[in-house]
Amino acid sequence: MTGFLIRRVGQALVVVLGVMMITFIMIHLEPGSAARAYLGVKATPSRIAEFNATYGLNESLPHQFFSYMNHLLHGNFGISYYYQEPVSTLIAQRFPSDIFLVGTSSVLAVIIALPMGIYQAVRRNSLSDNLLTGVTFTLYSMPDFFFAFLLIALFAIQLHWLPPGFVQNQNSSLSITGILAEPSALVLPVTLLTFTSISGWSRFMRSSAIDTLTQDFIKVVRAKGLPERLVLARHVLRNSSLTIITLLGLSLPSVVVGAVITEYVFNYPGLGLLFLDAATEHDFPILMASELIIGVATVVGNLAADIAYGVLDPRIRHGV
Question: How many CB atoms lie within 10 A of CB 215?
Fold first, then answer.
């Protein structure tokens, strides 16, 4: 297991370095220049020269890259062009909001999707299985923004039960305290992310559980007289959840950037909305930080999934 972890960490470092290099190069391939993209076509040469000198863009490309790497090692992502604040500060302000939103919806989705998938596997091809399959396929194929608009139209416009989104008052809503001050506004975005996750995860769980139920060891434990609920809880659930472990690991980047569409529609002050605004404003320091964070989160998520595989399945642990 130790050798496996060393290899995985080494591969992860190479991938992260590659992501940094590719992101840096692609950002600097912007037609014209970063200064022209941010300041606009009417910017004067003196204003562009001042901008380049302020952010070190008048240096050679290799010098800029190594300077950027040095700053990253010290936890410095640069200064935002638009907000005129350290990017690390902007990320730190919004990161807890993303953890709360995506974490809450993911926990709810797992709690519902796992037993739902096993239930469908046990009662496969029954009326209830077909009904749940139809619902999950509908949710899975429905675009997130369309589902969000349906929720807003029903619960905010027609029934007037919930607000259509968050009302941000300067920086008050950027903290967890500010978000929890509007608990009713959390219901729709959490509902959207929860149901979109359930639609996919329950299908994977159903397929994996059906395969597990056909295995010989399930027949053996049933022949020994083990109650069906213990068969499902101790054997089917554990062996079928390996697929979900992978999905949870791959979903880690969504914890970092949130669900961009969800945050945009409901005006949720998370990293997804920050990165989207940075893209429209050509705020390259934030964009570079977002790509790096997403890359690191993807690598860490895959590594966490591999470790969890080894813990849940001894065959994998002993085989490395």
Answer: 12
